[in-house]
Amino acid sequence: MCTNQNTGMDAGHASLTVPETVVRQPVLWWAGAGAVFLALQAYVLLSWVLSPDFASRGTGVDPVPAQVRTSAWISQFNSVVAFLVCAIYCVRRSRREGCLTWDALLMIGGLSVCWLDTAINYFRSVVLYNAYMLNWGSWNAHIPGWASGSAHPTPEPLVFVTGLYGWWFLLFSAVFCGVARRLELHWPRIGVLGLVLAGVVTLSLLDALLELIFVFSGLYAYAAVVPGWTLWLGTVHQFPLYGPLILGVLCTIVAMLRYGARKQRYSFVERGSDELPVSAPVRTAIRILAIVGFMNTVFVIAVFAHWWIGSHAEGPLPVPSYLVLDNADSTFNCVT
């Protein structure tokens, strides 16, 4: 969603002082948070790239099954293709409308939380990626205060993960908006709460479907889970039911931004950006930072939820060496 309204600065009549009402605009607070998050992840990623940790992790002594190798390549290819499709769509739409569309903002915001992908491993190993996928180690150990002992050998499949975060929130937001429009059409009085509940249910189921495909394809495994809330407990395919619920809530919150923006020009995070006495490019940059700040904040809250639940989890699960845990030796003795 684009707007091209001119402010006083655009027209050449900007004041030297910023009105107090402008300073209070929520968009500036969110943009400030976005700047902090970007600075932090820039530090983390740069220190990782310049360290010995920036190196591919091997699969260890356990052979990677043929079907797992095939799934890994297909999944990485599909993730990149989906990313490119979304990027082309956002670029074309933005060029047609003459400014950065909201879906483009959403895609940028999604990419900005990629660095938090395995932050649920902050205190203990919870999720383990398949080292057969393209990886250059992990930046986890460079996140300030990282306490998990398996930070260094945890591989981050950069191609798969970067592609995934480029399309994930776009897909989930589009699904939510489609469901919300139909619900409001048939039940005009459903209200915000009804839309949120419907979104959480729908997006939790969608997340569960996608994650089950990933887990049973051998792309990653959950090493520590809460037994009473886990399917296929004790196997390499064990799947915690609370994971999709947390992500369902997260994606619903983000999707509500898109839904509100499509109906009211701006999401509540961007409210007040039109009143800022700055040029159009600067205003767009502020909106980007605001979305980045909001999405990183919500993602961190979701990570905290995983941490709290993880404090009640049992593990770690013994896994084959290509699902790197603490070393390259096989500890694979669980039921498959």
TrEMBL record:
UniProt cross-references to Pfam families, sorted A to Z: AveC_like
Transmembrane feature ranges: 27-50, 70-92, 104-123, 158-180, 192-221, 241-261, 288-309
Name of protein: Spirocyclase, AveC family
Organism of origin: Paraburkholderia tuberum
Record carries keyword Transmembrane helix: yes
Record key words, sorted: Membrane, Transmembrane, Transmembrane helix
Keyword Transport: no
